[in-house]
């Protein structure tokens, strides 16, 4: 049957092959050779060789080659056709049998398919039932096993769920306890389960998470109280102030059942209350929001204002985890760092009181928190740790206050700072901290306060003295009179009897200065309040400060006014009067200090006021300045003197400049009526002596080389005018001719020359009863030499006149004897 398979007939027309060309014919030949047997390979070999020979393609060879090739192809085609026709019948028979078998197979297939369909349809319900039964039994077995396992696992899962809920709600300490129960009680029962192994592996992580979260809460707490320590301190200081005010009220109005006791752990004032207390609010950070309330509300304590639960939780957690020491060291280290930050004052703290207040609030807030931690925890902080921090804080605070307070020049700011320091000290003392060093430091600030007060009052005194008109205060009615009397202790029965209008003897600066001294004493007293000083110490402080005010500031101000160039005699006279009355008022200042300090002046070691000395010194300086001014005025008048020293005859009256000078002296001494008698007399005597000395110097000065008797007689008229002024008593109180004695030297000298009484002078010289006792031989010789030169130069022919010759000889003889007296006196 295999050999009967028919082969397809293969034929090809020559025309088609010719058209395809030599290459296609060659492929045909190759194909025919492959199907033929025997000589096919040889033909192929000959064909290839012929085709590859180049001569085939040249000339007629190509045509013959193609003809041979065509003939060869036709032979092969015929052989192929014969072969296919020989096997074709067997192929047809096989196909026919195969078609018969296919029909039978198709019938069998349909029968099997129908049988299978019927079988599947009949057994489908049974299979479904069996599958359901299998699944039910499997589920029953699984449920039973699951119930058994869940009975063991449910408590574990419940505990784990409880743990997660506790951690979610930040209840870390209960979560840690739950974790311990879970680890030691429940997990060992189901340890073979994979989820239990996962839980066991997560337990250390959960512990670390709880540890880290609690530490994070602690850090938030520490950061929050660092930022809000000034608020905590502010409320604590307000509470201390309220308590002190209450104590003052109780001490002034004692009654049974005192006020509310000042709680040691209070760190909030009565104007604050808790605003938000939810667990998720700011309380976990350490500070609760507060809002203002009336002062009558009960003051919350530190535990009400500050939520310390983060500290307690973290402490318990670390204690349970066996790391309490680590926690304590960390807490103390962080609080030490915060203490250093709190104790670092701002650079501009000295500029305003708010700067000091914020600084103190932060320190108080810090130690209020630490004090509460000390009393509510066991061992987290101890007394030694607190004392160490307080010693450091005390030293740094005192150093900062010394530095910044030294920049302060406003006494009001220094006083406010003192009150703030006292409140600061009282607040911390209420919490058991020693504050003696703060009060010692306040004594140092007291000295600085005194200096600032002195500078301030120096300016006040300068303004008073500069604005004063240095005229007696006029009063036009009784009301104004009583007002002045109320400001300054002055009593004068004669003045009270005088009708209005009348004048006080002193100017306005007297009551003003007196009241300012009292204000200064009040200011000193304010600083001494609440310093826990005895009455004697307060009295001593006030008296010493007042003495500095009088001896330094007021004295300097008075001296400056007295030494001022534009201060006239009238002003100087009024200053003497004013200082006299201020000196008398010193005893009233003593009484004033005694009344406010309740320390009697007779007490041992009581400091006395130096006001009397201050005002005496000022008065003496004024007196000296009056003397100096008078002398300067006299010198100014004397500069107007224009003597003709060569005059042959004197004038008919005293010189004009001297008449004006005498008139000025009379008017000046008339103003001295309110001065103490001794001052006026001294001023008058000093002026007359200076005038006498100046006239003597004018007569004897070297520029006056020649002098005539006529000029000397004119000079005598001026001296007589001065003597007349002295006799007139310009100032009452001189006895007899005491004032005239100021001119006695001039008078005796002029009488000696005008009367030419040399014989008496030379004979009685050196005797107590000598008529010309005040005439010095040197002075007489100088004046005589001037007259001698004049006689020689102006009397050319005097040598031819006997009288003139005799007079010249007498002058020479007197001069010789005067030189002899001078020489003998020097020996």
Short description:
Helices cover 71% and strands 1% of the residues. The protein contains 27 helices and 4 strands.
Termini separation comes to: 197 Å
The chain-level structural class is mainly alpha
Kindly estimate the percentage of residues that lie in beta strands according to DSSP.
Answer: under 5%
The major sheet is characterized as: 2 strands, antiparallel
Mean pLDDT: 79
Give the helix tally: 27
Walk me through the structure.
By secondary structure, the chain is mainly α. It is 71% helix and 1% strand. The chain is built from 27 helices and 4 strands. Strands 1-2 form a two-stranded antiparallel sheet. Strands 3-4 form a two-stranded antiparallel ribbon. Helix 2 packs across helix 4 and helix 20 runs antiparallel to helix 21 (656-671). It starts with 13 loop residues before the first helix and ends with a helix. Mean pLDDT is 79; it is low at 1-40, 254-296 and 795-800.
Keywords for this entry:
827 residues; mainly alpha; two-stranded antiparallel ribbon; 1% strand; disordered N terminus; exocytosis
């Amino acid at each position: 049957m295999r050999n009967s398979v028919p082969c397809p007939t293969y034929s090809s027309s020559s025309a088609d092959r010719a058209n395809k060309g030599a290459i296609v014919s060659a492929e045909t030949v190759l194909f025919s050779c492959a199907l033929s047997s025997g000589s096919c390979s040889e033909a192929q070999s000959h064909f290839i060789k012929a085709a590859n020979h180049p001569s085939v393609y040249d000339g007629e060879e190509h045509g013959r080659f193609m003809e041979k090739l065509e003939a060869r192809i036709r032979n092969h085609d015929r052989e192929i056709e014969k072969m296919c026709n020989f096997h074709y019948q067997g192929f047809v028979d096989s196909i026919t049998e195969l078609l018969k078998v296919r029909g039978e197979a198709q019938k069998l297939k349909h029968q099997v398919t129908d049988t299978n369909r019927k079988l599947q349809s009949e057994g489908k319900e049974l299979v479904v039932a069996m599958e359901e039964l299998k699944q039910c039994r499997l589920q029953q077995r699984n449920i039973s096993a699951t119930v058994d396992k869940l009975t063991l696992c449910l408590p574990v899962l419940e505990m784990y769920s409880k743990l997660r809920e506790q951690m979610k709600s930040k209840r870390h300490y209960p979560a840690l306890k739950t974790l311990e129960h879970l680890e030691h009680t429940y997990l060992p029962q189901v340890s073979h389960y994979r989820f239990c192994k996962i839980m066991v592996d997560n337990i250390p992580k959960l512990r670390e998470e709880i540890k880290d979260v609690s530490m994070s809460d602690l850090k938030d707490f520490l950061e929050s109280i660092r930022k809000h320590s000034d608020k905590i301190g502010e409320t604590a200081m307000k509470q201390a102030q309220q308590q002190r005010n209450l104590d003052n009220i109780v001490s002034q109005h004692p009654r049974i059942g005192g006020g509310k006791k000042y709680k040691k752990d209070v760190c909030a004032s009565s104007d604050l209350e808790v605003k938000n207390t939810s667990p998720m609010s700011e309380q976990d950070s350490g500070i609760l929001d507060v809002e203002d309330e009336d002062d009558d509300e009960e003051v919350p304590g530190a535990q009400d204002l500050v939520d310390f639960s983060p500290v307690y939780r973290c402490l318990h957690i670390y204690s349970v985890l066996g790391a309490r020491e680590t926690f304590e060291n960390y807490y103390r280290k962080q609080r030490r760092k915060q203490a250093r930050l709190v104790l670092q004052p701002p650079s501009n703290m000295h500029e305003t009181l708010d700067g000091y207040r914020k600084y103190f609030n932060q320190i108080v807030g810090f130690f209020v928190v630490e004090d509460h931690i000390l009393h509510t925890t066991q061992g987290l902080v101890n007394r030694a740790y607190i004392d160490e921090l307080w010693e450091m804080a005390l030293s740094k605070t005192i150093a900062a206050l010394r530095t910044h307070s030294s920049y302060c020049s406003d006494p009001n700011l220094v006083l406010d700072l003192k009150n703030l320091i006292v409140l600061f000290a009282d607040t911390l003392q209420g919490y058991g901290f020693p504050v003696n060093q703060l009060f010692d430091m306040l004594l140092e600030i007291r000295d600085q306060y005194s200096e600032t007060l002195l500078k301030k009052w120096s300016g006040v005194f300068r303004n008073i003295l500069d604005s004063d008109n240095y005229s007696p205060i006029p009063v036009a009615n009784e009301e104004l009179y009583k007002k002045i009397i109320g400001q300054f202790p002055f009593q004068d029965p004669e003045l009270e009897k005088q009708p209005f209008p009348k004048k006080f003897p002193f100017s306005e600066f007297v009551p003003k200065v007196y009241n300012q001294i009292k204000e200064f004493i009040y200011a000193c007293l304010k600083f001494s309040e609440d310093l826990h000083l005895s009455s004697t110490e307060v009295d001593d402080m006030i008296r010493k400060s007042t003495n500095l005010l009088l001896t330094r500031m007021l004295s300097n101000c008075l001296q400056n006014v007295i030494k001022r160039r534009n201060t006239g005699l009238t002003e100087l006279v009024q200053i003497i009067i004013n200082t006299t009355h201020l000196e008398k008022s010193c005893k009233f200042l003593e009484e004033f200090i005694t009344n406010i300090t309740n320390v009697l002046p007779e007490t041992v070691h009581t400091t006395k006021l130096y006001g009397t000395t201050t005002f005496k010194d000022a008065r003496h300086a004024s007196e000296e300045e009056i003397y100096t001014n008078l002398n300067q005025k006299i010198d100014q008048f004397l500069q107007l003197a224009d003597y003709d020293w060569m005059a042959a005859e004197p004038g008919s009256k005293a010189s004009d400049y001297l008449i004006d000078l005498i008139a000025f002296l009379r008017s000046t001494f008339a103003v001295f009526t309110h001065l103490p008698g001794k001052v006026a007399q001294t001023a008058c005597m000093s002026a007359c002596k200076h005038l006498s000395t100046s006239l003597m110097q004018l007569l004897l000065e070297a520029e006056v080389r020649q002098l005539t008797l006529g000029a000397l007689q004119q000079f005598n008229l001026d001296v007589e005018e001065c003597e007349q002024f002295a006799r007139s008593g310009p100032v009452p109180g001189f006895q007899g001719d005491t004032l005239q004695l100021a001119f006695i030297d001039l008078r005796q000298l002029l009488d000696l020359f005008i009367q030419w009484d040399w014989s008496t002078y030379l004979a009685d010289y050196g005797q107590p009863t000598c008529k010309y006792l005040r005439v010095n031989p040197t002075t007489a010789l100088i004046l005589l030499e001037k007259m001698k030169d004049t006689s020689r130069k102006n009397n050319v022919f005097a040598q031819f006149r006997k009288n003139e010759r005799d007079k010249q000889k007498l002058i020479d003889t007197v001069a010789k004897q005067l030189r002899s007296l001078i020489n003998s006196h020097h020996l």
